[in-house]
Specification:
heterodimer; A: two-stranded antiparallel sheet; 22 helices; 4 strands; B: mainly alpha
């Protein structure tokens, strides 16, 4: 089954095991769940060690026939883009299962929670690794149901509303994406005579402009909801606030990345012309999201909601970085995804811990906690600073690269005579850069209100510092933030080739699409294996001049 | 017309079902009290035997053979659907005994009627003549009317049976009138091939179209397509729950089998399919109406049986979309419809099985609020119900998802149906909303009062079987697709 197959399916087997243990044995459920996720993480380390950084394409592929009559294969593979996102997933899940606060204060049904977390991990890893659109869709939807239950069963007071909203928002996008996938499937059949949903093949299908726009709209909507891009973000604060700590952590650290990953993997490469048309709009929305999320975060009184809005702001950077379509910006976007996973995951752990101690999230209810919880205060501060983007910590690298990429966006595009793709890069870069200051404002204010000031509330005097497993969780998060901040090169060097290939491939396919926007669906660049139709002529055939009316042919 | 043993052997499944039904009727006079449950096991044995007969006949059915002067045919499509009917009957016979005992009307006739109805369904999908179609439909329906009303002391059961019977009789009237018109305008053709051959001449007479549409209306009634669906919620609600599952799965599947065959042979000429008068446009309108109204009405239901009834109406809409795709020349649409029917049969029977399981004589627990806390009280049953509901809603990796995927995939092969696919997909979003209402009650709310379900070993076995198949149909649908696909690629 290959390493990738094991990393994908191990958590699922673990979930089945956990469900088989009798309900009363909560310690066994926790232990078994943690063990499974740690083993999965260790196996996933084999992906990193076996990964060849000099190669741009997919590696360690698993390709088995699944539903033969429809040409559907269980096809997994990893490249420099998905590599670190998979690692992020397998890194965050054991942390979540380790944290005593993961289930929230409704500490019930440990067995089901653990099993759902593991099923969720299978869904996430599978969706990152999938190289067949059917497989991708199945794993994509497989993430939805466990998250729905995690919010709905273990969530806060308004959990019903938040869980339904989460499902409906996500499904609207993904169902339309399914229609687009089916359309691609039919067009591939029309162009080549064979049935396939393989990513390697379908990503070579060049559609005429009209269908491209519609398919891009369907894919982009699904991903934009997931990111979320302003104004589709309204489900996020609800879901985050109501979800238990473990759910919030995974939602922020991994699930949101599927939106941006989807743009990188599917929406941009498969529909280049439509993406180029829509890019200015999405870039503007991303910048609005950056500023809007930051301002909303600044005015929140609920710590969890504050962190949730900070996600909207941070992910705006990721979208912006992807749309620069130069290697620097895209690399920065990928790095920002990882660092956001670590730092925002850490922030949700911290807020969850405070909620566990005090059963409130209002900033006004806290104050002066640093005296009672020195260890927690120190680790929390590092996480805050990582999220703010202090040099030396993980957040800085990604934001810096994204901003460089943004400022130089049109220089790289001008070379290809495609100016106008990215509107006013200097202005956009300036606005986004100023939002970094906003991040410092809202996060440091939050820290100040929570930790500093007089210790004047009696409840706060009884708060215990972190101990045992909690210390481990925070220490590991801080260590990861430090390592990523000080030594980004091992990560960047492994994604470099794939990112370059992504950018070059995108431009290549964009030119092919622009050459004749109305050309019927065709395979470009031609595939060796798939018996392509006759190669398109190198020079565009001039359209015959229209015959003037009234002249008989 | 020749009549020999080889012809009879080809219809072994039907004969076994009828024979076992008679055996059950006779045996009923000799057993009393609790021993009556044994009658159900006789029926189960009959179903297993019928399944074996289907498996034996499968390889010979690769080449369709016609029998009894063109009245009936044996081909793979018919055998595939036979399998679905027999499994539906088998599951009904597993769910029914504990339910009937609890409700106090455990009669041997019940099991016999289930077997007779199944034999009728088998005949419907084998029929290649309007006469045998009529006989099959009536055999199936008469048994179904009685089954609906067999909760004699329940007013709702009586009301449901009455409505079902009156409306059904009306539909039969349409069918017979339609047959007469077709017979007259085609110059005496009753078999599908004959009708197809006479289409060129007959289509010049408007009455021929009228006949065609009368026949279709009768069948639309049986599948509960909007606007011929009015009877369904009442009949589904009133019927004893195992019967509801049997009706929703079996009767609908049989009617769709008949529709597919009829439109694929008798009315397959382009004259009949396309244009304003063609059935393709008429059925697309019905498909949109059916799925949309079914889903919208289901949102408002508080009674789970009525909700599932409207959901089953909506599923007829998706299926009609597949039928239209088949008419527009998509080779894969027919196997997609067949696969959908099988996935739907298992899922719906499972869902109604849980509904039958949860209540007891004094407390039927038919309202969503009654399901609160089931997830904590009975995790296994709640998990099974969750699987069925998510499968009905089309969530991967369950059978219902793959069925929808396969069906929409077929429809996406023709540009005319793009819009319908989008409507269908948005409809399944709506459906997820109301299926989640039940899941919300089961898991997110605390129980209001203690549970004392009907339960029973055979019920548990049935639920386990359906849940497993629903998951398997989603994860490894390949075999079923091949069986269904072997049908479409003539």
């Amino acid at each position: 089954m290959g390493v990738l197959g094991w990393v994908t399916l191990l958590p699922l087997f673990g979930a089945i095991l956990v469900m088989l243990v009798p309900r009363e044995e909560e310690a066994i459920h926790r232990g078994l769940g943690l063990l499974t996720s740690i083993v999965t993480f260790c196996v996933s380390l084999m992906i990193v060690t076996g990964f060849d950084a000099g190669q741009a394409g997919f590696q360690m592929e698993v390709n088995q026939s699944w539903i033969a009559p429809l040409g559907i294969h269980f096809h997994l593979g990893v490249d420099g883009i998905s590599l670190w996102l998979v690692m992020l997933t397998t890194f965050m899940v054991p942390l979540t299962l380790l944290s005593p606060q993961a289930i929230g204060i409704r500490n019930i049904r440990v067995r089901e929670f653990t099993a759902l977390m593991l099923i969720l991990e299978t869904g996430m890893v599978g969706a990152f690794l999938a190289l067949d659109l059917f497989v991708f869709y199945v794993f994509w939807e497989l993430m939805l149901i466990p998250m729905y239950f995690i919010i709905g069963v273990w969530g806060g007071e308004r959990r019903l509303y938040a869980s339904i909203k989460f499902v409906i928002y996500t499904l609207v996008g993904s169902l339309l994406m399914l229609v687009a996938i089916l359309y691609l499937y039919a067009q591939w059949h029309a162009a080549t005579g064979s049935y396939s949903l393989d990513y390697a093949q379908l990503s070579h299908l060049t559609l005429p402009e009209g269908p491209q726009m519609l398919c891009f709209a369907a894919f982009a909507l699904a991903f934009a909801i997931k990111v979320p891009i302003f104004p589709l973000h309204t489900w996020l604060p609800d879901a985050h606030v109501e979800a238990p700590t473990g759910g919030s952590v995974i939602l922020a650290a991994v699930l949101l990345k599927f939106g941006t990953y989807g743009f990188l993997r599917y929406a941009l490469p498969m529909f280049p012309l439509a993406a180029a048309t829509a890019a200015p709009l999405i870039a503007v929305l991303a910048v609005i999201g950056i500023v809007y999320g930051a301002l909303m975060a600044y005015v929140q009184d609920d710590a969890k909601k504050l962190v949730a809005y900070s996600s909207v702001s941070h992910l705006g950077f990721v979208v912006l970085g992807i749309l620069t379509l130069n290697p620097t910006g895209v690399q920065g976007a990928i790095y920002q995804m990882l660092s956001h996973g670590i730092s925002t995951g850490g922030l949700f752990f911290a807020v969850g811990l405070l909620y566990d101690r005090r059963h409130t999230r209002r900033l006004g209810d806290f104050g002066g906690l640093w005296a009672k919880t020195p260890v927690f205060a120190a680790l929390f501060l590092v996480i805050i600073l990582a999220s703010v983007g202090l040099p030396g910590l993980c957040g800085f690298v990604g934001e810096f690269l994204v901003l460089i990429g943004t400022f130089t966006a049109n220089k790289t595009w001008a070379v290809e005579h495609m100016s106008g793709f990215f509107p006013a890069p200097k202005l956009m870069g300036a606005i986004s850069a100023s939002a970094v200051i906003l991040a410092a404002m809202y996060l440091l204010t939050m820290y100040q209100k929570l930790m500093f000031g007089p210790l004047d509330k009696p409840e706060n005097k009884a708060v215990r510092d972190i101990h045992g497993r909690e210390t481990w969780v925070f220490a590991i998060v801080v260590a990861a933030a430090l390592v990523m901040g000080l030594a980004p090169q091992p990560i960047l060097s492994r994604s470099e080739k794939s990112v370059e290939a992504f950018v070059a491939g995108y431009r290549d396919r964009l030119q092919e699409s622009k050459r004749d926007p109305d050309a019927p669906p065709h395979v470009y660049p031609a595939l060796a294996a798939a018996a392509p139709p006759p190669a398109p002529p190198a020079v565009p055939v001039p359209t015959p001049a229209p015959v003037p009316e009234g002249i008989a042919p | 017309m020749t009549f020999d043993s080889s012809q009879l052997l080809a219809y072994a499944p039907m004969l076994i079902l009828i024979g076992m039904g008679c055996v059950v009727l006779l045996a009923e006079t000799f057993v009393q009290g609790k021993a009556r449950a044994g009658l159900a096991w006789l029926g189960v044995a009959g179903c297993v035997a019928a399944l074996v007969a289907i498996a034996v006949g499968w390889s010979d059915a690769a080449t369709p053979t016609s029998h009894f002067g063109g009245m009936l045919t044996v081909d793979r499509m018919a055998l595939y659907l036979d399998g679905a009917f027999v499994v539906a009957a088998l599951l009904t016979l597993l769910f029914a005994p504990p339910y009937l005992r609890e409700q106090g009307f455990e009669f041997g006739e019940f099991y016999a009627l289930v077997l007779f109805a199944t034999a009728g369904m088998v005949m419907v999908v084998h029929a290649t003549s309007l006469v045998s179609l009529l006989i099959g439909i009536e055999t199936m329906s008469l048994a179904a009317y009685v089954l609906t009303g067999c909760g004699r002391r329940s007013l709702r059961s009586a009301e449901g049976a009455m409505k079902y019977f009156l409306m059904g009789a009306f539909a039969t009237g349409f069918l017979v009138y339609g047959i007469a018109l077709v017979y007259g305008t085609t110059g005496g053709a009753l078999d599908y091939a004959g009708i197809a051959a006479a289409t060129g001449k007959a289509s010049k007479v408007p009455l021929f179209y009228l006949g065609e549409y009368f026949i279709l209306v009768a069948l639309m009634f049986k599948v509960a397509a909007v606007p011929f669906h009015m009877w369904a919620p009442d009949a589904y609600e009133g019927a004893p729950t195992p019967v509801t599952g049997f009706m929703a799965a079996g009767v609908k599947t049989a009617a769709f089998g008949a529709i597919v065959r009829l439109l694929d042979t008798a009315f397959s000429s382009p004259l009949m399919v396309f244009d304003v008068t063609g059935w393709a446009s008429a059925l697309s309108v019905l498909a949109v109406l059916t799925m949309t109204l079914g889903n919208l009405a289901a949102i408002r239901q508080e009674n789970i049986k009525r909700m599932l009834a409207y959901s089953s109406i909506a599923h007829a809409g998706y299926l009609l979309l597949g039928v239209v795709a088949s008419g527009l020349g998509v080779a894969d649409a027919k196997p997609a419809v067949l696969f959908y029917l099988v996935a739907y049969t298992f899922t719906t029977l499972g869902a109604f099985g849980v509904v039958a399981w949860i209540g007891n004589r004094s407390d039927e627990r038919l309202y969503i609020d009654d399901w609160a806390g089931l997830g904590a009280a009975r995790p296994a049953v709640a998990l099974a119900m969750t699987l069925f509901l998510l499968s009905l809603g089309g969530v991967p990796p369950l059978g219902g998802f793959f069925a929808k995927f396969y069906l929409f995939r077929a429809a996406m092969q023709t540009p005319q149906l793009y819009k319908l696919v989008v409507i269908g997909v948005l409809n399944s979003l709506v459906s997820v909303f109301y299926y989640l209402r039940i899941i919300v009650a089961m898991y997110f709310r605390d129980a209001a009062r203690p549970l004392s379900p009907t339960d029973g070993t055979s019920m548990r076995a049935g639920l386990l079987l359906t849940a497993l198949v629903v998951v398997l149909l989603g994860i490894f649908p390949g075999t079923f697709v091949e069986w269904a696909g072997a049908v479409g690629l003539k």
